[in-house]
Amino acid sequence: MNIKNLPPFSNLEKWNDANIGKNFSVFDYVHILQKTQSIDPDFILAFVEVCWPEFLLFKDRVFLSDEFSIQKYESTIASEPHDKGPDFWMNLVCIDSIFEELDFQKQKYLGFSMEKMWRAKLNIEFPERDFIVKCIVEENEEVFCVFYQDETS
């Protein structure tokens, strides 16, 4: 298994070391974990939705559909600083609060991976729009992923 691009995962590394020469892949590892660790299939599907989310177009802005509501939109317009549009504030996802069991390095890896996936999906679904998509890593080890429309282009 080629794990050179992954951050240190103790269980994955142990599994890889125990299976040297057996030509297993990360797909095999996921398969074994799903079978032996009783990982709920719904969790797997929900995780896919986090990484490759559905989007919603509202008032000429794109939002994470699962995070959107009219009430949240109106509250954001009324209360958030106006240096960024409502799409920034409503699409700002705190990785470390969702995946608090992951250490900081793994949270960063996940955040930067989500940034790439969100950018790809936004480019597929909204090719005529320009987005800023980024993983934000704060000094206090908070990790965020966000996208919003680029108003300068």
> Which outline best applies?
elongated
Output the helix-strand order.
HHHEEHHEHHEE
Cα gyration radius (Å) = 18 Å
How many β-strand stretches?
A: 5
**Most strands sheet:** 3 strands, antiparallel
Tell me the number of helical segments per DSSP (H or I, 4 or more residues long). 7
Q: Which structural class fits the helix and strand makeup?
A: alpha+beta
The helix fraction, in percent, is 40-55%
Low-confidence stretches: none
Q: Any idea how many domains?
A: 2
Q: Averaged pLDDT, please?
A: 88
CA-CA gap between termini = 42 Å
Order of adjacent strands in the largest pleated sheet = 3-5-4
Strand content: 15-25%
Summarize the structure.
It contains 7 helices and 5 strands; from the N terminus they run αααββααβααββ.
What does this structure look like?
This protein has 153 residues and is of the alpha+beta class. It folds into two domains: 10-39, no CATH class; 54-149, no CATH class. It contains seven helices and five strands. The strands form two sheets. Strands 3-5-4 form a three-stranded antiparallel β-sheet. β4 (131-137) and β5 (143-149) form a beta hairpin. The protein is elongated. The mean pLDDT is 88.
Please specify the SSE layout and strand pairing.
Blueprint: H1 10-18, H2 26-36, H3 41-51, E1 55-58, E2 61-64, H4 70-79, H5 86-90, E3 93-94, H6 95-98, H7 104-125, E4 131-137, E5 143-149
Antiparallel strand pairs: 1-2, 3-5, 4-5
